[in-house]
Automatic annotation (TrEMBL):
Family recorded in the similarity comment: Belongs to the peptidase C13 family.
InterPro entries: GPI_transamidase, Peptidase_C13
Annotated organism of origin: Spodoptera frugiperda (Fall armyworm)
Pathway info: Glycolipid biosynthesis; glycosylphosphatidylinositol-anchor biosynthesis
Active site: 157, 199 (nucleophile)
Cellular component GO terms held in the UniProt record: GPI-anchor transamidase complex
UniProt lineage: Eukaryota, Metazoa, Ecdysozoa, Arthropoda, Hexapoda
Protein name: SFRICE_013692
Keyword field: GPI-anchor biosynthesis, Signal
Pfam families for this protein: Peptidase_C13
GO function terms (MF aspect): GPI-anchor transamidase activity
Tree of life domain: Eukaryota
């Protein structure tokens, strides 16, 4: 047993060293975050082949947050239409976000949690607020708590104060704000980073009133959010401008990166986006200049490295209880028949 214990201790030591190797120390210029876990809610709200770019948008963000460390178990991916298997797709089971570099964002490891007509306003609000039916599987639940930092990304078609869901219904800015307030009251988040890539996108965060929310939008009220380029092989726009430059920025971010949220908020100037990127930071307590981007896009937990020696092989042994040798053993014997007359309320004849 001693040999087995020593083997386990050695394996534990190796695992500890590896975890320290891939962890980061909090730089002094960053403000400390109180969060203990990261989640992402990524939603494409539009259907039909000509909206191919919206699926590419959401899968681009999905690819980035997963690469930076957020596991699928903490990513809720909602896609309204299956572009990968659309009959018009000349390259089945693929979705590209760049016609020139041929980046396939629909790989073998994509896990879609809500698809097709499951992507509705009701399901989205239920997901955020936790008011899902009891038989809802774990993969369709946002299991966050008061220590969760949540990235919410929405893409689709919108207008002044509303976002369409599959051209059949819409969620208003007030309904979205009320859903986030319910999340705060139920202690379902620590901080939220809200991103929306639609036309007149900034109108969707104007009604927010809950604390600890940082929001950005691809366009201001009265502006359209424009597409980036066409893929001639499929005949439609392949990605939106704002998400294209966001992805370009995130591709240069690694888990130990010191890039800040302020840098992220400036990734798409008007000369590139052709629309004005909106930012709302009055509800957010921390300075975006001092918030690492991995507080929302990654899942690396900072650790404190100690130089004090720790002897993990010195395991305390359990003490055996002293035997009481003076106590005489109890004598027992069998009865020929159980004395039924001794049991109360029992008739003997």
């Amino acid at each position: 047993m001693d040999l087995i214990n020593r083997i386990y201790c050695v394996l534990f030591t190796i695992a500890t060293v590896l975890s320290l190797t891939y962890s980061i120390e909090i730089p002094e210029e960053f403000q400390k975050s109180n969060h203990s876990n990261n989640w992402a809610v990524l939603v494409d709200t539009s259907r039909f082949w000509f909206n191919y770019r919206h699926v590419a948008n959401v899968l681009s963000i999905y690819r980035s947050v997963k690469r930076l460390g957020i596991p699928d178990s903490q990513i809720i991916l909602m896609i309204s239409d299956d572009m990968a298997c659309n009959p018009r797709n000349p390259r089945p089971a693929t979705i590209f976000n760049n016609a020139h570099e041929q980046i396939n964002v629909y790989g073998d490891d994509v896990e879609v949690d809500y698809r097709g007509y499951e992507v509705s306003v009701e399901n989205f609000v239920r997901l955020l607020t936790g008011r899902v039916p009891p038989d809802t599987p774990r993969s369709k639940r946002l299991l966050t708590d008061e220590g969760s930092n949540i990235l919410i990304y929405l893409t689709g078609h919108g207008g002044d104060g509303f976002l369409k869901f599959q051209d059949s219904e819409e969620i208003t800015s007030q309904e979205l704000a009320d859903a986030l307030e319910q999340m705060w009251e139920k202690r379902r988040y620590n901080e939220i980073f809200f991103i929306i890539d639609t036309c007149q996108a900034s109108s969707m965060y104007e009604k927010f009133y809950s604390p600890n929310i940082l929001a950005t939008a691809s366009s201001l009220v009265g502006e359209d959010s424009l597409s980036h380029h066409v893929d001639s092989a499929i005949g439609v726009y392949i990605i939106d401008r704002y998400t294209y430059y966001v992805l370009e920025f995130l591709e240069n971010v690694h888990p130990n990166s010191k890039r800040t949220m302020s840098e992220f908020l400036a990734v798409c100037p008007k000369s590139a986006c052709l629309s004005t990127v909106g930012v709302r930071r009055d509800l957010f307590k921390r300075d975006p200049d001092k918030v690492p981007i991995t507080d929302f896009f990654g899942s690396v937990r900072p650790v404190i490295i100690t130089t004090d020696p720790i002897d993990i092989l010195d395991t305390p042994k359990r003490k055996k209880k002293p035997e009481n040798k003076t106590k005489s053993p109890v004598k027992r014997e069998y009865l020929s028949q159980f004395p039924v007359h001794l049991v109360p309320n029992t008739k003997t004849g």
